[in-house]
User: Fold these one by one.
Assistant:
Number 1:
Amino acid sequence: MPTPLRLGIAGLGTVGTGVVKIVQRHADLLESRCGRRVDIIAVSARTRDKDRGVRLGDYEWEDDPVALARRDDIDVFLELIGGSEGSAKAAVEAALESGKDVVTANKALLALHGQALAETAEANGKVIRFEAAVAGGIPVIKSLTESLAGNEIKRVIGVMNGTCNYILTRMQDASLPYEDVFDEALKLGFLEADPTLDVGGIDAGHKLALLASIAFGTQVNFADMEIEGIEQIRIEDIEQAADMGYRIKLLGVAQLTARGLEQRMSPCLVPATSPLGLLDGATNMVVLEGDSVGTISLRGAGAGEGPTASAVMGDVADLARGFRLPTFGQPAESLRAEQPASSATPAPFYLRMTLRDRPGALAKIATALGEAGISIDRMRQYSHSASDAPVLIVTHKAQRRDLSLAIEGMKATGVLVGDPVAIRIEDL
Ligand code: HSE
């Protein structure tokens, strides 16, 4: 009779209770698929006396997640607490050092401490699995580490924060300003306790840093990622981008270039009819480009109890079956400390500005662009009654730093009202 795989679960929030429900509901299914039982032995959470809608009476209780992690009667420690420091980090370290494998949904922890934790895991002959940390229920880590193992990965692109995609989609559909939709999302409970993690692009950036490490065999490096959130996106940009055939998405892009590792998380214009352009609401999508497979798109729920618990259980099932991979798909010591790219790959840019409507104003703007070596692809001036003219320009491919120089030049002309808005147009 095979021995059961014994779990200790720390964190009984949405994801933790979702995992308990799956283990209880699918005990027989898991046993048939894994060839052994998957049993929960002990759990831990901040508050014991709370109705979580699941039976917990059969499990041992630990107030302290570190004590749970060190128990001798568990094989796998499930860290579902969250946060890059504090008890989540201490408990994961304790679990690895006391000989447990770890399954976690904690993107922040791994984005900031992934290399050190992967080394600790390997030093102790253990593994860390984290499918649930990136894009919820979408099996993107399995795809990269297993199915695409025979590919050189060219590029990883993703919309990996459902809350931001919800906000941008809702702004477009209801013609509402950012502030109104942010308040709606807050009331709906979509935002993280610290909303900056979502709208500031940090949560999605953590996810991209993890994918980049696996895709390119590099040490996870969140610190050097270029990150911009969606807080500055105005309804005018969404509407005018739509008018030119684009949608605005909080887009993550990672690629290895001759200039180093490029990792960007920022609002971008994408063609409205592209798969990413058509991605509405809180859904996530990750696009992977491999030298043999070509381009594949994975789409699905990036958050929520069922999808995230589903991803956790996929990792648990692997461990129950005896399938073990190093944390980032290859031994931690073989991951390269790649230099961050000195500049992003050139791209066309969308530029929105307001000009004082007087003779020669537009010519001065065109000259500022020309002097920075930037060529105009398309230009549109909207009819207006006031003395100020709204103007849109789409450039040919340009370096961001040249565009910044052009914007400085534009400001010096004295024909601008306010600052121009510049948004990258991503080549998909
Ligand atoms: N807050 C995230 C999102 C889910 O909105 O996609 C957790 O990473």
Number 2:
Amino acid sequence: MNKFYLTTAIDYVNGAPHIGHAYEKILTDIIARHFSQRCDDVYFLTGTDEHGIKIQKTAAEKGITPKELCDENAQKFKDAWKALDVDYTKFIRTTDEEHEKIVQKIFDKLLKQGDIYKHSYEGLYCAGCECFLNPKDLTEDGLCPDHLKKPEVVSEENYFFKLTKYKDAIIKHIKENPGFIVPEFRANEVLNQLEDIQDISVSRAKSNVQWGIDVLGDADQSIYVWIDALSNYITALGYDTENPSETFKKYWPANVQVIGKDILKFHSIYWPAFLMALDLPLPKQILAHGWITIDESKMSKSLGNVISPTSVLETFELESPDAFRYYMATSAPCGRDGNYSDDDFKEKVNAHLANSMGNLLNRTLSMLVKYFDGEVKPEFKDENPLAKKALGTVQIVKNHFDNFEISEAGLEIVQLVDTVNKYVQDNTPWTLAKEEKMTECGQVLINVLEIMCIISALIYPYCPNIAKEMARQLSFDLSIKLDDLTCDNIKTGKLISKDEIKPVFLRVDSELADKSSKK
Ligand code: MSP
């Protein structure tokens, strides 16, 4: 594997980020960090989707220009990702000039080659989805099933994209490539949707939607959000209809495009069709994650239960985002819906990160200092009974990541921690010390610390700060590739002194959590 290109959905900037947006960016960041431990060249793209009626309306309600609204909110997304250690390579905004220019060229090319045509149309438009809805998909009361709002009847002359022309090729691609849509059970949903697809509107009348990219040579039409939004995945790399950049040639097609289940249709039908029309290869995989609910309810402004990701860090006075990242990533298998609750958060991160993992390292290093003044003697390095399990876990974690089973991989790492804890309980190094069996005692401690090095590497994508602190105390080089991991990580000689031992993760304070649930 010599390069790995991955993308997230780009978020609408009509509001501030919430933990649903954060979930996706954290998942993608974890995948990016994991693959950076397996390949040298990872490119991680995220950004914001800034055009369309929704943004135009929100800006008008606030009495500011759409551009002002976009600038204000795009910054909030960037700030949130910084606070969560989402370490992207590039942040694209669809109002970036280079993006806008290339979208115009893409549209023009498709128009000239006959894939786009003009057509009078009357349809039901949902601003929440930023798309026309099929009457048969509405609820019994005629509402959009996702936004529970009545779509607007729109009658316009628009440009249309010949989606039907690509229907058979897309069906063939999905059937011949069972891994294209992850999880696989969603592929059937897409195949059903493909049954009755029609050509799609790709522009809106300027008189209705001013906040969009102009169609070249037709000042009365704005390019409708999906062709604009989806193109970000290639414009960010410097795609150009005539002269694509070296970066584009190097990274496209994407290895995986991470999105929410609600926008799978756009990514597994529209996007492949646009790419086929542009004669470009399709992304290798599309990962459709589930949604995050709050205390088992859908997050919504009307319920007043929208949580901002940074508020979780503030409520629990967390120094780093690691616990939140770990919790979100393991909240549910990737394609299923997950849930956030303060109590569960507190319980899980205290159990897994503080009591199990943090405590194990702390206790072991403290014993090394107490019995051996922090010194690793050559005779402590012996055959390690935990080696097979630990190296087996590395393989299992890699396999999980190959299938984007991020939650399962996280829990596998915690299981390894449990095994090591059990080894300590079974071998009681404190009793060995009491019995003056010092070589055996030292061997047990070093066997544990060797595996803690492996654990720090495996947990790094989820908890980069905790992993770095673990590695510091173990004098372990975290930049090692997973395939190079062995059970010979601890060097002989002085490893650590008493004042260098620090808890890697402090228990989340129960009082703080209680305060927050009473709010
Ligand atoms: N702008 C479009 C995407 C264009 S991609 C070319 C969009 N934006 S969004 O802001 O509504 O959603 C952005 C991403 O956040 C989507 O992948 C969506 O599924 C995800 N989520 C929004 N709410 C969510 C939850 N409650 N839980 C998990 N993910 C959620 O759609």
